[in-house]
Amino acid sequence: MQSNSLFIAPRERHAGSLLISLGLMSLLRQKFEKIAFFRPLVTEKEDPDCLFIKHYFQLEMPKEKMIGLQVSEATQLLSENKKHALYETLVGQFQTLLENYDFVLVHGMELSDHTSGIELDINLALAKHFNSPYVSVLSGQNKQPHDIEKEIEMELHASSELDPFAFFINRAPSCLLESKPSFPKHPNVPIYFLPEIEDLNTPTVKEVSEALNGQFLSSDEAGNNRLVKEPIVAAMTIENYLPRVNEGDLIIVPGDRSDILIASVMSLFARNMPNIAGIMLTGGLIPRPVIMDLITNYHASDLPIVSVETDTYPTAVKAGQVHAKLSTTNPRKTNLALGLFDQWVNREHLMDKLLARTQDRSQDITTPIMFEYGLFEKARAELKTIVLPEATDERILKACDLLLQRKVVNPILLGNPEEILYQANLLGIDIGEAEIINPETSPWLSEFIDDFYAMRKHKGISYDLARDSMTHINYFATMMVHKGYADGMVSGATHTTADTVRPALQIIKTDSKTALVSSVFFMCFETRVLVYGDCAVNQNPTAEELSEIALSSAQTAARFGITPKVALLSYSTGISGHGNEVDKVRQATQLAQQKRPDLIIEGPLQYDAAIDMTVALQKMPESQVAGKATVFIFPDLNTGNNTYKAVQRASGAIAIGPVLQGLRKPINDLSRGCSVADIINTVAITAIQAQTPSETTRSSKGP
User: What's the predicted TM-score (pTM) here?
Assistant: First the structure.
């Protein structure tokens, strides 16, 4: 079967099919530009799963096009013996999407109390009518291997007329994860087992509150995503209640128990007490303003406090029955789910299988999302250790949490471990798997001082100055990279560019193939990614230096999957102009061509001739670069820095960088205004730079 679609079908309640749809969408975004997400049957008009997928992947399709019919409408048609009309309506909606999108991912009907009036095999029937490959999702919770094997056999029998694509077993028992049996009932259908992840399957305070129609009394919404490991009823005095509190407990207590409320808030800031998830006040009783003011003034606004109308024990029972879900308000869970999918699913094999069945209508397109996913894939291929010295910065800690969830790198944080873990705990994030090193107490410190003194004493540095230098975290981190204790470093969130680059130049030094450190920005436009260099380091490079920047930038582009077609820019195109500046660019082009005749390099070119095919055909119709350039080399820092910022602001492009190139080992700088996403992307880029270069990074000459 050839089809630009997949049909995801849960075969039991709480099978976790949204996690599978999330993982497959992330996979599809690497290949297809326009993807539709379609749910034929939903219980609510504002389906939360559609809204979640639309928000996370920034789908441009209208939300009403993501939904077929409500279950109540389908039930009505079936009761009137209009099954044909039901299928005809849904097939028509699906075909419209198939005609207007490169790929359609269909998420079948979830089984619940609301769907009891619809036959269980409707997902199989719809997959058949859609002529779509079928993905079955089962739960392995509390099941033995032979039970799962029997369910798979029954699924294969039920879908014998269809095209089974894959099976996903969520929350699989550990014995299956260890042995990974093939279940050879259908050799062409892969079976993927995903383990139980406690945090992923644990509801948040917000989810529990919504299930009980609660009202938040706290002001900071960030704490609403704290995980509820267990709801407990606080019915004792404080001295008996506090010893029974565990990490992640949701304290359920009548709203007039101010003593329990205040003690719970105070326990959050006691380092020897567990970090509770939140407090749920029952009976519709609201604490007096003086109590709420006391809590607020104690700086506990990030502790979620919820009021519910129900009594204490019914509240506890219902809270214990709430199931976790993925939502737009909890990005940590989303990244954890994607990390789980990436770790346990053979993405390359799955993509090959998918493309073998797909009528590929996509062009040579790379969107920003595709590029970012590509970064993660390349980083995972050869996992590297990246040191992040600015561990006291909240953004670094949040980025570290996400990097651990997505398993992109092995991060090392520098600083006092107790303080770092305490700050992470207050932020509600888990960085327990990250290595934390305190430079002040590290056994490496004396070694680093000696080595730095040895390498810099010929420059007149004293031993005392070497010791002082190693007290700076960027020097310590850079020395870790130099000594091989880390593969790369990312800094700059709280330090200047000079603070990051100076230790790198003194310790790491330049690669043997170049005498120049330069930089590039990855400019992510709507449908392509271009490379701009050098927009951050070299103020007024000579012709020789400009040629080195061009070659380094071409190598960086190739390393990240961008075929280098290098344009050296000037105010003149071809041989039409003269002057010192254009002559410099012309000479740099000749030097670069001599050093790397296998690369496509041309210059001087004006920017419009390099990027616009219409202009290129007028000015340089025979050029291999004009109108097709992917790497743009600016003649000086003034031109490059202003141009990248002007293009970024005018076009809405995402600028990732600066990425340093030319060092023997990768060190990269952040902007002090960087976001968490900027940090994650820069760390992934650094990890890729640290990987063993392959022959594919040398692009052969040709279009």
Answer: 0.77
